[in-house]
Design goal:
- This protein is an all-alpha fold.
- The protein has a single domain, classed as Glycosyltransferase, CATH 1.50.10.
- Helix content is 76%, strand content 0%.
- It has 15 helices and no strands.
- It starts with a helix and ends with a helix.
Length: 372
């Protein structure tokens, strides 16, 4: 029993903050399927996401209470601090689901406040981390996960706008603040993605270095698109806002176009990674047929790790953002693209979930064997 408790406590001590990306991914796929009018799937994913969120919050709370020095050490380490932003985005995603499915505005407001505090704390430590690493070239510091700065910032603005609309508020200053945060996120994106483009296309970059968080190059633009479309739909209908409305709309369309252009590159890099890396000879036929099957199946070929959820979130977000963009533009044909992409996102979500469950069951089995 003592050994079992020790193993569990070690697991909590080393809890990977990236697991909240699972909440992000499940939540946005749920919201996307609600927008696609598949309410049964959407609500089932929402119920499952509540379970995920409560379990992960419980583990994180225990870790903070019992292992606060370890948490602070993670926050002071830039590479470990950035994934904590998945908690911010995951919390705001749960808030969006509560508003979407149950109009639970008050509870969503509390979650938004928790996420806002978490966002401020994480950005403080991340900025401190960048300052401490100022002697190192920026393009070597940033990676796909760094774009969580953008995603978390937009998520604060996005849920804020939904709460203002749900509460029936038409206070111009509140919408101005939400819009300012959204614009700030877009500026962050341009700064970070410039460094990433230099790293990916102008430096030596091997398929083995490729990881799921690079999908956030597209996912960040997708959530910017969703945030902009929601703002355009819900902003006060005042004459003074007409010029702002048009600017936000054009930035939204531009962000969607950037995200769309990223998709072919992301798919190709995934295929190269799954068909070449950690494969002795030629990739088996089942991998060549559908490379993402490695997320769930295979022995030595199994490639699941917690950051894999960072691939699913951008896929689901692209679906949700495109459907929102359709509402504010005349690009009705984009809805057809979203339908197909949404099912692809659900398939990748399912494979990633199977991969996670395999990892969890293997860990449980290891604990059981070690305590005999």
């Amino acid at each position: 029993m003592k050994r079992c408790s020790s193993i569990i406590l070690d697991g909590i001590r080393n809890f990977h903050p990236s697991y909240f990306a699972m909440v992000m991914a499940t939540g946005i796929v749920s919201i996307a399927f609600e927008a696609m009018a598949f309410t049964g799937i959407a609500r089932a994913l929402f119920a499952l996401n509540l379970v995920f969120y409560l379990i992960l919050c419980t583990i994180l709370t225990i870790r903070i209470v019992l292992f606060l020095p370890d948490v602070l050490t993670d926050l002071r380490t830039l590479r470990r601090a950035v994934p904590f932003l998945t908690f911010v985005v995951g919390t705001n995603t749960i808030g969006m689901q509560l508003v979407t499915f149950h109009q639970a505005t008050e509870l969503a407001m509390w979650l938004w406040l928790v996420a806002l505090i978490g966002w401020v704390v994480c950005l403080y430590f991340i900025l401190l981390g960048f300052i401490l690493m100022r002697g190192k070239p920026l393009h070597e510091i940033v990676n796909g996960a760094t774009l969580l700065i953008v995603v978390s910032t937009v998520s604060v603005s996005l849920l804020g706008v939904r709460l203002l609309e749900a509460a029936g508020s038409h206070a111009g200053y509140a919408y101005f603040m939400a819009g300012s945060v959204w614009v700030l996120a877009f500026v962050f994106y341009l700064m970070i993605v410039t460094l990433l483009i230099y790293r990916l296309f102008f430096q030596r970059f091997e398929p083995a270095e490729w990881d799921a968080p690079y999908w956030i190059c597209m996912g960040a633009t997708a959530i910017i698109t969703l945030g902009g479309a929601e703002f355009v739909l819900r902003m006060p209908g005042l004459s003074a806002w007409q010029g702002i409305w048009l600017v936000i709309l054009w930035i939204t369309v531009f962000a969607w176009m950037i995200g769309t252009m990223w998709i072919p590159y992301l798919l190709v890099m995934d295929i190269l990674k799954f068909t070449r890396v950690n494969i002795a000879d030629s990739a088996p036929l089942w991998i060549k047929t559908f490379p993402w099957a490695r997320l769930a199946f295979g022995g030595q070929c199994h490639v699941y790790d917690p950051p894999c959820w960072s691939r699913v979130f951008p896929m689901g977000m692209y679906t949700a953002s495109t459907l929102s963009l359709v509402k504010v533009t005349s690009f009705g044909s984009l809805a057809i693209i979203s339908q197909y992409w949404g099912w692809f996102a659900l398939l990748i979500w399912s494979l990633t979930l199977i991969g996670m469950l395999r990892t969890v069951f293997a860990a449980i089995n290891l604990v059981t064997i070690s305590t005999r």
